Amino acid sequence: MNAAGRAREPEAEMPATEKDLADDAPWKRIQQNTFTRWCNEHLKCVQKRVGNLQTDLGDGLRLIALLEVLSQKKLGRRYNARPTFRQMQLENVSVALDFLERENIKLVSIGGCRGRGSRDHSKAIVDGNLKLILGLVWTLILHYSISMPVWEDEDEEEARRQTPKQRLLGWIQNRLPQLPVTNFNRDWSSGRALGALVDSCAP
């Protein structure tokens, strides 16, 4: 075997778990693209846009704008409108994370930031820690999109009592009364429920 063949060997034998955790794992790119579109859908009303989710939240400006749009509140603290230095960027991101804390929105603990304070989360976001940024956006989606009463005829008080997972399952059960879907594992794995759900949304 030549040297080039030997050099390729470790990559070919990389365990699936390591492939899934790699920075260029396909699921990360899909999630990043989906979350970027979600952010841009909300930011367009304030004429802002995220091009690269990993870097564009790092100065705090788009993150603050996104939180103000989602919450329909002003963050209430001054921030740097032109954050040219790292310290200014860290301060801006801290303003956003402090707002989440006041709103009792818990940031998903991911990677090296598990169990640490908002200062470490701020550094991770400014430094472009993609895992933490994806976790942050997922937290915002859970709170502002899934946790709010969004289904037709949904009772607001009932929505508060249920977890986002319970509410999503309830919505699927309403769309698919002919199928016994009671969980996202056994009842979801055959693909029948997914096919029926797609057909019910776009026949």
UniProtKB/TrEMBL annotation:
<dbReference type="Pfam" id="PF00307">
    <property type="entry name" value="CH"/>
</dbReference>
<dbReference type="GO" id="GO:0051015">
    <property type="term" value="F:actin filament binding"/>
</dbReference>
<keyword id="KW-0677">Repeat</keyword>
<dbReference type="InterPro" id="IPR001589">
    <property type="entry name" value="Actinin_actin-bd_CS"/>
</dbReference>
<dbReference type="InterPro" id="IPR044801">
    <property type="entry name" value="Filamin"/>
</dbReference>
<feature type="region of interest" description="Disordered">
    <location>
        <begin position="1"/>
        <end position="22"/>
    </location>
</feature>
<dbReference type="GO" id="GO:0030036">
    <property type="term" value="P:actin cytoskeleton organization"/>
</dbReference>
<dbReference type="InterPro" id="IPR036872">
    <property type="entry name" value="CH_dom_sf"/>
</dbReference>
<keyword id="KW-0009">Actin-binding</keyword>
<feature type="domain" description="Calponin-homology (CH)">
    <location>
        <begin position="29"/>
        <end position="145"/>
    </location>
</feature>
<protein>
    <recommendedName>
        <fullName>Calponin-homology (CH) domain-containing protein</fullName>
    </recommendedName>
</protein>
<feature type="domain" description="Calponin-homology (CH)">
    <location>
        <begin position="162"/>
        <end position="203"/>
    </location>
</feature>
<dbReference type="InterPro" id="IPR001715">
    <property type="entry name" value="CH_dom"/>
</dbReference>
